[in-house]
Write a structure and sequence with these properties.
442 residues, mainly alpha, Growth Hormone, Chain: A, two-stranded antiparallel ribbon, 2 strands, 80% helix
């Protein structure tokens, strides 16, 4: 069954969810919360390379504990999404799940308002729950793409979602930036300004999420006579079925293997960048926030540029160029000097250009390669499980190498290996795709 691109109102509504939830990605994942976490778990001495904290009787390097907490959240998401996607496909109620996880994540963000140095476990619990809400909601959000956009429009629509996300998150970031940089003007402390930012993220995410939900179409149920118990237990069977179908699609299979490895690098860089800059490079919080804003600003034209490159070449070639660029960026990040603020700004410009593009193009490439099916959520669940497991491996690897070697720089070198493996697999997939197209036109 062919799919036609939905109305502009629906497309804009879909993109509006990115506008809302990307505030979590920017403020909680990338800027204010990591800096706040480092401040409340550190000893206040900028010369200390590895601050430690104690949780449940065990001592951790504070940055490594942060990485482990996020990895735990991604494990939960990877375990949940097959079950949830199966239910959503069968019942046709993915909008309800999107609402639930939007509410769960935004509430956890708001609860971070009460996190300070006296309740580390509470703060990490809220961080984990917010992460689960954000990434679980994306399982259902992403699965709307093949339902609202024709194959030829998916690159453009996917890029629009990311671009809207960058714009919306930057607006809220600037608002939070005002509080954090000028707390005296509002009669509050820097810490309270950060906590207020977490509360605003929850409100922003939930509010714009409701606007998106009003405009998104109702999904068509794919199930038949299955009982509720069979639907719930069938999530992993659906995942297995998708994997079995992928075996007969070698190009899609190689893309997913490649995505598994290069996504380890991309997502880990995005999740640890602020702590790396703060702890390893000793970049002041204000300069870190400026750098992240630079990344967000550059990411908007970057997403559209890479989508344009894919149009004049191919999705695989555009992805290979982008991955090669990421390898260079990791090497640059490894060699950055301590206190090198302007060097860090330069790296931020380069990262921003490829950050949104590789995510948007990866999502649309998968949507193009997957077969026409009613079980779109199950297919995107497989994609999301692949993504989350790769993040778990990336985050645990980064944290473990950090604790083992005493330096986050060594962890960056591991990311280079992930990118190289992903590039090689994608290259083989591109060659196979070219052979298939040549055979079809012969």
């Amino acid at each position: 069954m062919s799919v036609t691109t939905a109305s502009k109102k629906v497309i804009n509504g879909w993109a509006m969810y990115d506008w809302g939830n990307s505030a979590y990605n920017l403020v909680i994942t990338s800027t204010i919360f990591p800096a706040y976490y480092e401040a409340v778990t550190g000893d206040g001495n900028d010369q200390t390379l590895n601050d430690t904290v104690t949780l449940f009787g065990r001592e951790y390097v504070n940055t490594a504990l942060y990485n482990y907490a996020l990895a735990i959240a991604f494990i939960v998401v990877a375990l949940l999404s097959p079950i949830l996607s199966s239910i959503a496909d069968y019942k046709g109620n993915k909008k309800q799940f999107l609402f639930f996880f939007c509410t769960l994540g935004s509430a956890a963000c708001s609860a971070l308002y009460f996190y300070d140095k006296t309740n580390l476990a509470f703060g990490l619990a809220c961080l984990i729950i917010a992460c689960i809400g954000f990434w679980s909601s994306l399982v259902f959000y992403n699965s709307f793409l093949p339902e609202i956009a024709a194959p030829e429009d998916r690159d453009k629509v996917s890029a629009k979602g990311f671009a809207m996300g960058y714009i919306g998150s930057m607006i809220l970031q600037v608002i939070c930036f005002v509080f954090v940089l000028s707390p005296d003007s509002f009669g509050i402390t820097v810490g309270k300004a950060s906590q207020l930012s977490f509360l605003l993220v929850g409100i922003w995410w939930w509010g714009f999420g409701q606007l998106a939900l009003k405009r998104l179409p109702k999904s068509v149920p794919a199930g038949g006579t299955k009982s509720n118990k069979e639907v719930f237990a069938g999530g992993y069977k659906e995942l297995s079925k998708v994997w079995t179908q992928i075996q007969s699609m070698p190009v899609l299979k190689r893309f997913l293997f490649s995505f598994f490895f290069y996504n380890m690098g991309v997502q880990t860089v995005m999740l640890v960048a602020t702590l790396y800059g703060k702890s390893e490079l000793n970049i002041p919080t204000m300069n870190l926030i400026i750098a992240i804003l630079i990344i967000q600003f550059i990411a908007i034209p970057g997403a559209y540029t890479i989508a344009w490159v894919s149009k004049i070449t191919s999705n695989f070639k555009a992805l290979m160029i982008t991955i090669a660029f990421w390898i260079v960026l990791c090497v640059i990040g490894y060699t950055l000097p301590r206190n090198g603020i302007y060097e860090f700004y330069g790296l931020a410009v380069l990262v921003g250009f490829v950050m949104g593009g590789i995510q948007a193009l990866s999502r649309s490439t998968y949507a193009k390669l997957m077969p026409e099916t009613k079980d779109t959520t199950s297919y995107f669940s497989f994609y999301d499980v692949t993504e989350k497991v790769s993040i778990v491996v990336g985050m645990f690897s980064f944290g473990y190498i950090n604790e083992l070697s005493g330096s986050q720089r060594n962890s960056v070198l591991v990311l280079v290996i992930f990118f190289v493996i992903g590039l090689l697999i994608l290259f083989s997939g591109a060659k196979l795709q070219s052979k298939q197209k040549a055979h079809e036109t012969a």
